[in-house]
Amino acid sequence: MTSDKTEVLIVGSGFGGAIAAYHLAAGGAKVTVLERGPWLESKDFDHDFLLGSSYTRAFDFVVGDGMSVLGGNCVGGGSVVYFAAMPRAPRFVFERHGSIGRRMWPAEITRDTLDPWYDRVSESIPVSQQDWNDVTYSGGLWAAACHHSGRTANPTPVAIDNAKCTNCNWMMGGCQFDAKRSLLTNYLPAALAHGATIRPLHEVQKIERTDDGGYRVHYNVIDDVDYRVHTESGSIEAKIVILAAGAGATPVILQRSEESLGKMPHGVGRYFSGNGERLNTAILNEDKVREVLGLSREDGLAYEANQIGKGPTVACWDRLDENLPEYSRYSMEQLYFPPGLGTILAQVPGGDAPTWFGKEKKEILKRWRSWLTIFLMTEDDNEGVFGSPPPTGNAFRVSQQMLGRGALKYDPTPNTLSGWAKADAEVKEIMEKDGLAKIAPWTNDVVGAYTVHPLASCRIGDDAGTSALHPNHELRDHPGIFVTDGSAVPGALTVNPAMTIAALAERAVPGIVKAAQNRGIDVKYGAPSPDGATSGRRGVTKLALSLAGD
């Protein structure tokens, strides 16, 4: 077993980890980042689905009891495998009550107070608003269908360099062309330039206190081919620990640490949200697409373009209305989901249940180029609860890469089911109008409900009974431990959450810097954006001082 020391130890290198790593390293702290997955670069991102390709190496798919979670497993975390959609959360999200009967978010966080931190992220990554010239075939079709049914459609803000994008639609496995502005292109290289150390294939197991008031973090080194194999183990001592392993792993680490750290807050491993997510597959009638929507492309084709383009480019936000009652607000977003999980879980519209397999399924698979996938993000009841942690890691590893069995239990409430049903019904109304398509939601029979945006398993809040973290992201009753990933977000956002996770991480940094100073670390806050820009820094100067307690 090896042993080492650092000043700030960060677990995970996604949005929550990379942003903290950059600011603390730039401020002068000795920063070490432990990442469970491999370190992949643009040259490593494959355009195939073979075992051992970037798809199986960079993903973590954990099947729970009623809910399965798909997340990133590599340096850069979810930013490497996400579709780069970066909308800001609607204003009403911050006023949600959810299942607890009171405002879930801390009183000090509203859309207005978070906007300057959103601005800073947008400058650092950067995020741009697409126009209609950037929209893909599938996005254009979704926009036309929305317009035909009396809805509006909006190009989505994205972290994509459209000048570099080749519309190859392989971005979910990592971008070969560096067109997707993942954390590999901004915060992480900037952190490295300021002296941060990143250790890939290091899976954190537990945390314990040291005699001097700091923490000792224990890890296993993972084999780079078979993730079930541990090649060695070790520990690192640190004065500050920042957990950013994702909402499916951070609570498991804390649960396993309870024996050594002492009792965890009630909210650790509870109130998990799948961001209320649903997926629907529309099987398009090409003739109707041409006749009803007037769409066509080269060679006389109406569409047949499922595989061309990129991730989401168009969304319908008509239902993101603060005047609507809770659990009836949602977004509807066109999405390309590559063959594999999507083709398995897609059901035959109008068939005899179950229709995710069988003869009818084979027939619709022949028409996969005429598919359109619609991604729904609704409001749920935070009903997920993590059971006892596995012996190591966040799941029992089933295969050498990607697949695991986890302890998350999810039993959707009537509120959540109602929200899903409303969203399903509206997208069906849009896509089946005048015979454009036949549509059906993905089945829950195989892996339960599913999410690519896990949230809220260690959430911030004002109430100690329902939130694991103080509003400054520090773990209750465990000073010096912070959580900055999606598990800190209080609940479903009704939009893609990456921008909000990143903004909250930016907001948390001044308080972490202050805590680090109090623990004897010579570190300052105030670094510019990774590219040197300072307008975002100026925008948060006063807020940063208040969050640091000055």
Radius of gyration: 22 Å
> Structural class per helix/strand content?
alpha/beta
Query: Beta-strand level of the residues, as a percent range?
Result: 15-25%
Helix proportion range = 25-40%
- Measure the end-to-end span: 41 Å
Count of all domains: 1
Q: Any low-confidence stretches, pLDDT <50, length ≥5?
A: none
Q: If you consult CATH, what is the topology?
A: FAD/NAD(P)-binding domain
Classified by CATH, the class is: Alpha Beta
- The CATH architecture can be given as 3-Layer(bba) Sandwich
Q: Quote the average pLDDT.
A: 94
Question: Could you describe the largest sheet, including whether it forms a barrel?
Answer: 6 strands, mixed
What's the number of helices? 14
Any descriptors?
550 residues; six-stranded antiparallel β-sheet; 20% strand; six-stranded mixed β-sheet; FAD/NAD(P)-binding domain
Tell me what the structure shows.
The mean pLDDT is 94. The protein contains 14 helices and 23 strands. The strands form 5 sheets. Strands 4, 5, 18, 19, 20 and 22 form a 6-stranded mixed β-sheet that branches. The protein is of the alpha/beta class and 550 residues long. Helix 1 packs parallel to helix 6. The chain has one domain: FAD/NAD(P)-binding domain (3-Layer(bba) Sandwich), CATH 3.50.50. Residues 8-40 form the FAD dependent oxidoreductase domain. Its cofactor is FAD.
List the topology elements.
Layout: E1 2-5, E2 8-11, H1 15-26, E3 31-34, H2 54-58, E4 59-65, E5 67-72, H3 78-81, H4 111-124, E6 128-129, H5 137-148, E7 154-155, E8 157-158, H6 187-193, E9 197-199, E10 202-209, E11 215-222, E12 230-238, E13 240-243, H7 250-261, E14 277-284, H8 286-293, E15 314-316, E16 331-335, H9 341-345, H10 359-365, E17 371-377, E18 385-386, E19 396-397, E20 403-409, H11 414-432, E21 437-441, E22 449-451, E23 481-483, H12 498-518, H13 535-539, H14 541-547
Parallel strand pairs: 1-12, 2-3, 2-13, 3-9, 4-20, 5-22, 13-23
Antiparallel strand pairs: 4-5, 6-8, 7-15, 10-11, 11-12, 14-17, 14-21, 15-16, 16-17, 18-20, 19-20
